[in-house]
Amino acid sequence: MFRKMAILDDKQEFQTLAENKMDEVRNTVLEKNKAYLQDICLKELQSMYDESIKPKITQGTYFASGGYKKYRDDFAKLREDVKQKLPTSDSIIIDMCVLEFEGRYRKQDEEILEKAEMTESQIKKGIQEQQAKLEQEMSELERKTELKRKEKEEELRIHKEALEAQRELEKQELQERYERMLNEWRKEKEDLERKIKENADSISKQQTETKQKRVRKPALRETVIKTFLNLIPVVGPIATGIYERLSSD
């Protein structure tokens, strides 16, 4: 359909429509892939949490002195472990999933921090460090997201340029094919007209010759009769003399 319409699409309306449709399909596929990856990542994080962190909470390991730091270290290990388990996945999406997963346990984080045997200054320092770390992670995540967006825009621009070049090439090929077909049709038409004219001339010539033959036959007969009549005065006396001589003998 695109090839048939492209050669007549001088205003590029069909091209724009096709590109918009492809963008919609592409965005839909990307969103589905993103949702699928997020689902897998969150399930992996939950499985790792249930295996490595939840038992220690039940045992009270994190509520002892220095337990909060160990709790945060174990959460950081979850991030590294899930990245190793999903090495081909988008790292930005994984980071977003980790932050979302940590948000589920924010209240638990505060409880551990509150109950652990830490001085007031240590608690305040821990909170500040955690906030600073989260802000840094969010800033880095935003930077990566923006970089990823620019990369996608550049890929889309290159894709559109390639599509436009391909469209122009196909348009040119279709135009050349159309011109070849038109020239072949014109040549066949000229050959047919020439043959028709030659046949018409041949038939006309044959009809003329036949007509002339029919006209000449009566003229020859009249000429013979006229010649015979002209010879009667000459041949008559000779024949009479011959007859009289034969009679006298």
Can you characterise this structure?
It is a single chain. This protein is an all-alpha fold. Helix content is 90%, strand content 0%. The chain has a single domain, classed as Up-down Bundle (Signaling Protein - Interferon-induced Guanylate-binding Protein 1, Chain A, domain 1), CATH 1.20.1000. The protein contains 7 helices and no strands. The radius of gyration is 54 Å and the shape is rod-shaped.
Stretches with pLDDT under 50, minimum 5 residues? none
Based on Cα principal axes, name the global outline.
rod-shaped
Strand content: under 5%
Helix coverage percent: over 70%
Cα distance spanning the termini: 115 Å
Q: What's the CATH first level?
A: Mainly Alpha
- The total domain count is 1
Instruction: Let me know the largest β-sheet.
Output: none
CATH architecture: Up-down Bundle
- Provide the structure class: mainly alpha
- Total helical elements: 7
Number of strands: 0
CATH superfamily: Guanylate-binding protein, C-terminal domain
What CATH calls the topology is Signaling Protein - Interferon-induced Guanylate-binding Protein 1, Chain A, domain 1
Rounded mean pLDDT score = 76
Element string (H = helix, E = strand): HHHHHHH
Query: Over all CA atoms, what is the radius of gyration?
Result: 54 Å
Oligomer: single chain
